[in-house]
Amino acid sequence: MIKVDNFSKEELFSWLLDASKLWLAHDGLWFQEVEKKFGLEVAIELDKKAWELFSPLEAKRIMERLKIEKNSGLSALAKALKARLYTILNDDEIELKENKLIYTMKSCRVQEARERKKLQPFPCKEVGIVEYSTFAKTIDERIKTNCLFCPPDKKRNSGWCSWLFEI
After folding, report:
1. How confident is the model at residue 106 (pLDDT cuts 50, 70, 90)?
2. pLDDT higher than 80, residue 1
3. Please, are residues 151 and 125 in contact by the beta-carbon 8 Å criterion?
4. Residue 102: beta bridge partners?
5. Which of 75, 78, 94, 164 could pair with 146 as two cysteines, CB 3.0-4.6 Å apart?
């Protein structure tokens, strides 16, 4: 086992960044292989099922790590969203107002890689609805999630996707 106790802050960050990139690469490669064998519709359906299981798991671990109490509102969700594994790879923005939180993914490593390859954006809206709603409900069961825009919707100046969370 590698001892990280002696790692500098920079070494730990580099380790985390690389692990995040590898995790996301594996997710993408898995999806592409399922799509090749079974088609886009089946790949999206299986991806939704995987996110339905993974998002609550990720939320629970973040809650434990950051000592976030269950049902502690939108400020807890804002804190948890900033601690997700892929936030280290993407530029995002959170607007928190009374009983509304708007989360916008300003840059997206997945979509920008597809752009560089001259591919259409990945139509992640269906998957995102499952991902974000199960993540938010794990933080606080009162939270309702709505997609403001997400591919296949057109990219906007503000970013790739945007989500509204309300209590």
Report:
1. very high
2. no
3. yes
4. 95, 164
5. 164
* Residue 2 within any structural domain of the chain: no
If DSSP codes are grouped into helix, strand and coil, which group holds residue 5? coil
What sign results for the dihedral spanned by CA atoms 158, 86, 46, 28? Answer: positive
* pLDDT score, position 2: 78
Domain coverage including residue 101: 10-166
Structural domain includes residue 47: yes
Alpha helix (H) residue ranges in the chain: 9-38, 40-66, 73-81, 109-116, 125-139
Angstrom distance (rounded) from CA 93 to CA 82: 9
- Nearest residue to 102 (alpha-carbon basis) of 147, 60, 54, 61: 147
- Residue 63 Cα to chain centre, angstroms: 15
Q: The pTM is what?
A: 0.92
pLDDT classification of 61: cutoffs 50, 70, 90: very high
Number of folded domains that form the chain: 1
Question: Band of the pLDDT at 101, cuts 50, 70, 90?
Answer: very high
CATH code at 30?
3.30.1380
pLDDT band, very low/low/confident/very high, at 165 (cuts 50, 70, 90): very high
